[in-house]
Specification:
Blueprint (H helix, E strand, L loop, with lengths): L2 E8 L2 E7 L4 E7 L4 E7 L5 E5 L2 E5 L4 E3 L1 H13 L2 E6 L8 E2 L1 H12 L4 E5 L2 H12 L4 H4 L4 E3 L4 E4 L2 E7 L8 E5 L2 E5 L19 H12 L6 E4 L15 E3 H7 L9 H13 L7 H8 L23 H5 L11
Parallel strand pairs: 5-8, 8-10, 10-11, 15-16
Antiparallel strand pairs: 1-2, 2-3, 3-4, 4-5, 6-7, 6-9, 12-13, 13-14, 14-15, 16-17
Helix pairs in contact: 5-7
InterPro entries: Metallo-B-lactamas, Mito_Persulfide_Diox, POD-like_MBL-fold, RibonucZ/Hydroxyglut_hydro
Keywords: Metal-binding
Protein name: Metallo-beta-lactamase domain-containing protein
Length: 327
Amino acid sequence: MDRAELVFDAPNSVHTEITTPMATVDSVHHPKTGTWQYIVADPNTLDAVIIDPVMDFDAATRTVTTETADRLVSLVKKKGYRIVHILETHVHADHVTAASYLQSVLEPHQACRPAVCIGRRIRDAQQFFGPKYGVPSAELSSAFDRLLEDDEVFPIGELEARIVHLPGHTADHVGYIIGENVFCGDSVLNADLGTARCDFPGGSSKALYKSTRKLLGLPSRHKLWTGHDDPSAAERRCPVPYMSVEEQRQGNRHVHEHVTEQAFQQMRDERDAGLGDPELLHASLQINMRGGRLPKPTPQGEYYLRLPQLGFGDCYAEHAAKRWCHV
């Protein structure tokens, strides 16, 4: 029997703990970006992973702070976890990852260095976006400690985790299956929201439909832990971290079991055509493709990110038909 606990551990923040016979999952919501961050632990060994952590970035003042990441560290210390991996589902365009910061803070605390991991297609994303932002190749080649292959299996204590390729939102997008828990990032959202956008370079509504069918083909009891939730858009009071596969099959507004591929593609492409750029688009891409590291500072100790002269749509319109990696 699963045990759930809901905790409000900071203003406007929601933290839930779900304990199952196989794993303990702490989910921490970041209200500013709507991101769900996860800590998944083996209850026997207390080895754990962190999935998609957030660094606070204020676009108006261009400042980076660590309040959200520090709350994750406090939670890890409180529970006595040893973080063995920090896992990214993809190169996010709507928030800055705290992966590198967490690695540097946790290493001296636990006397081992957690590896920052992502799917192997990150190289294609780096090759596409790196030159556009003038990112030196030397800052990209060692950005991640481990590039995971499709269906690769790795341990978390006595637990077994498997990576699964879930293209659509982006071409490099992956999920992580740990027991009956699937951390599916920006693919399937909660049923009242539907699915993630597919209009970024390499994104594909056709690929996303196939990815959702892969997820909804899993056993009914499996939990799909989403990467984002915006309760205000769904007229809910609180964000929800997961729904079961069966609940998604029956009720997802975009990809329930009666939706055809053609109908989904038409709906998704039409919706995406009216979406604006994420607020943190350019900062997120430049930092996240570096694994959460800032650019190298100038001799004066200042850090600079690049902004294109044109907006996202104009800047990439000529590349819309090009794929920066195979899906």
